[in-house]
Amino acid sequence: MKNRIARKIILPVVLIGIFIGTVSFKSDFFEIAKQIEIFTTLFKEINMNYVDETNPAALMDTAIKSMLTDLDPYTNYWNEQDVEAARINNAGEYTGIGALVKSGPESLTIVEPYKDYPADNAGLKAGDEIIKIGNINIADFNEDAGELLNGSPDSNIEITYRRQGELKTTSLKRSAVELNAVPFYKLLDDKSGYIVLSRFNAKASSEVARALKDLKNQGADKIILDLRGNPGGLLNEAINISNIFLPQGELIVTTKSIIEKYNREYYTQKEPIDTKIPLVVLVNGRSASASEIVAGAIQDLDRGVIVGARSFGKGLVQRPKELAYGTQLKITISRYYTPSGRCIQALDYRQRDENGKAIRTKVEDYNQFNTRNGRKVYDGCGILPDVKLETSEYSDITQSLLIQDALFDFATKYYYSHELSNPKQFNFSDSDFNDFKKFLESSDFEYKTNTETELDKMMDTAEDEELKAKIASDVSRIRSQINTFKKQELQDKKPEIVSLLTDEIIKRYFYKEGLYEYYTLSNPEILKAKSILNNPSEYSKILK
Fold it and tell me: Cβ neighbours of residue 476 under 8 Å, at least 6 residues apart?
């Protein structure tokens, strides 16, 4: 939730800032000035004359959000707290309780406590719902309650939380929290070096370089770079990480815009660490932005093999613009293109369907490009892996399970009903999957297919035309068939669902570090990567 501190003049400042910054590129000088004046007078009249008392800050917040929603989801207004959060994310350190939390209307849910940080030391677990911080009830707090968890080093904080329906309290002391870009790396038994890159902050390239050098010193003769779930970050770090494996002077990415100063080509600037070591890059549907720049460059230049599932498809570049009172506008300024010339942006926000959702590029509209060796690659669809695995996929039903926290909630239930002392002993059995399906039936999980949505619209139209009663039995039969299909889809997508459930459950017992250790033993993507790297002829064949 956004901070509600009154800032009556923010939107005019935003608009003027945009106007001043682009006056030499825009021809609609009068129209912009006219709209600013209209809005300013309208805003003043509402606040002075509306029948009930208004909240100027809340009105302005709504106005800004509504205006930006019409553009794309990455062009955002940042208040002071948002700016600080971005700084923390890019810097990789802050002072707090050491836990990833999710805000809700009445509580903050612990998503992941970081090992050996204050939240973990105080006994907080994933799934715990913080309902009170000090004397402040989360339900009564109108600003971003997550900010209450941060504070000065060594300061004390009292927390009341709910666990499995039982209220508990704890006291902890805030400390500096370091967010490593490379949270894990290890030499595997076949001399593959495994490196996890979880974010592109200011330390990303230096941490990857350090991990690679250490692994090579230990005897690594091939590398697996894991970008799964990495949402991106700093563009220059994506260039630098590509540079670790690619020669100096290689084109990594091009940005293009209608504003000429944002049209740039980015080349590697340094001497690489190793341009020959066999390389596999892992991606999935949550690998985005900077992750796609790295994967796209590695693929286009035939430097390594991409394994997993289609990446997210975010080919839009943002830049923060300073506004008044410590606020910022994060605005999309250009699109980026991989070395072969393809833009991997998957959604077209300039075109919307009847529900206002951006339209995804259709397969028949993909344009073909070629890698350096002449392999076919395509635009408009993220990065398509060279080797596709179903365990990496994110189907519609899986996306719904993630969005509605069904996987997270089941993992919480599983944790409190099962003992597990060694990750090597874990196996998510068919019986466990049946328990998961029963859990969904007893929960409020709802998965609605596109067909059901269209069927609802048809019934609304039928009611207007007085046909609803006549077709009701047929529609009921169709709905029954759809429900049968959804149950079958849940079964058909079992590999990807079980993979995600396994990740969530292992983290509950052994933290993220234990999950990565488990990956090295049992993860299908890593096993496939090792298989490719240990077969030089297959590796070479994929890249030719």
Answer: none
Same domain, 172 and 190: no
Backbone angles phi, psi at 348, to 5 degrees: -100, 105
232 in the same domain as 163: no
Same domain, 198 and 296: yes
DSSP structural state of residue 175? E
pLDDT per position as a tens digit, 246-287: 999 999 999 999 899 999 999 999 999 999 999 999 999 999
From the CB of residue 113, how many other CB atoms can be counted at a distance below 10 Å? 24
Q: Would you put residue 430 in left (φ > 0), alpha (ψ -120 to 50) or beta?
A: alpha
β-pairing, 184-187 vs 99-103, is unpaired
- The residues facing 160 across adjacent strands are 132, 169
Cα gap 38→49, rounded to integer Å: 16
pLDDT for res 372: 97
- The answer to whether the CB of 392 falls within 8 A of the CB of 228 is yes
Helix, strand, coil: what percent of the chain each, to 5?
Answer: 45, 20, 35
Q: Which two tokens stand for residue 314?
A: 């975010």
| Residues in CB range of 250: below 8 A, 6 or more apart | 242, 243, 267, 268, 297, 301, 339
Name the residue among 103, 114, 126 with its Cα closest to residue 175: 114
Cα angle vertex 366, ends 361, 368, to 5°? 160
232: left (phi over 0), alpha (psi -120 to 50) or beta: left
- Claim to verify: residue 440 and residue 327 sit in the same structural domain: no
DSSP letters for 241-310: HHHHHS-TT-EEEEEE-SSGGG-EEEE--S--S-SSS-EEEEE-TT--THHHHHHHHHHHTT-SEEEES-
DSSP 328: E
Residue 468: C-alpha distances to residues 457, 481, 535 (Å): 12, 19, 62
What local confidence, expressed as pLDDT, does residue 299 receive?
Answer: 98
Q: Which two tokens stand for residue 82?
A: 């948002």
DSSP state of 324: G
Q: Give me the residues of the chain with pLDDT under 70, please.
A: 1-27
- The distance of Cα 31 from the centroid of its chain, to the nearest Å, equals 37
Catalytic residues: 289, 300, 314
Separation CA 176–CA 192 (nearest Å): 33
At residue 368, the pLDDT reads 96
Quote the pLDDT of residue 476. 87
Instruction: Specify the CATH number for the domain of residue 262.
Output: 3.90.226.10
For residue 144, the enclosing domain spans: 93-178
Same domain, 212 and 222: yes
| Residue 245 to residue 277: CA distance in whole angstroms | 8
What pLDDT was estimated at residue 82? 79
